Amino acid sequence: MKDLLQGLIALQNVELEIFKAEEGLKELPKEIDEIESIIRARKGSLDAVDEEIALLEEKKGPLEAELKENQEILDAADARIKRIKTNKEYLALQREIDLAKKRKGDIEEQLLGIMDKIEKKGADKERIQKSFDADKVILDEKKDKLLAQMRELETVVAEYKGKDEKLRASVDPSLLSKYDRIKQGKKGLAVVECHHGVCRGCHMHIPPQLYNELVRGDKMIICPTCQRMLYVEDEPGKGKAEEKSKEESKK
Length: 251
Ligand SMILES: [Zn+2]
Hints:
The chain is mainly α. It has helices at residues 2-81, 87-160, 163-170, 173-183, 208-216, 240-250; strands spanning 191-195, 198-199, 229-231. The chain has two domains: 22-160, Helix Hairpins; 172-250, no CATH class. It is built from six helices and three strands. Helix 1 packs antiparallel against helix 2 and helix 1 runs antiparallel to helix 3 (163-170). It starts with a helix and ends with a helix. Zinc ion binds next to loops.
């Protein structure tokens, strides 16, 4: 029986490698997407500060124009005041000058307020940019690592694909269909070692009577708990499938 199972164990090892690689290839792009969306969000908050600064800059233009206009009014009034004859005219012009001066003060105050805000936003931007630059190095590194992992997994799949078909062809068809049925929902692990009476698939003891039958090796023994096909490793150090099942059971 062990000999019959040997081909199946080899097939299972190959299929497990493919299975693990394909699982990784499904998961890794999600992790990469996550990193990319973090970078996009961070970039977005930088763009938002830029936009706020641009809006403030836009507000400056009309005020500066008004300030210039106001200065022209004051300059013209200065020129006129020397030629004034009556007290009435003088008072009217003085009122005009006072108004223009007050407006000038208002505009200057507004401009100062805007420039103050721009300066603060600029400092914000610098701070955000600095932390973004530092984090982006880490995020890019992470992403590169994930991409490298994906390439590795793709190599594994390419390496093992084809091998599985060859092994399938060499296994007894009825055994193969049994194996295919069992591995469904068992993370691809259908054949496991039974070590000192303990199933490596589910870590449960199998009844002693069953274990004896398994050791005798004249018929197929299924674990009563997890329904996997069992085998006993007779030669130490020959157990590739044992390593596999150990790896699997750690998950
Ligand atoms: Zn079991």
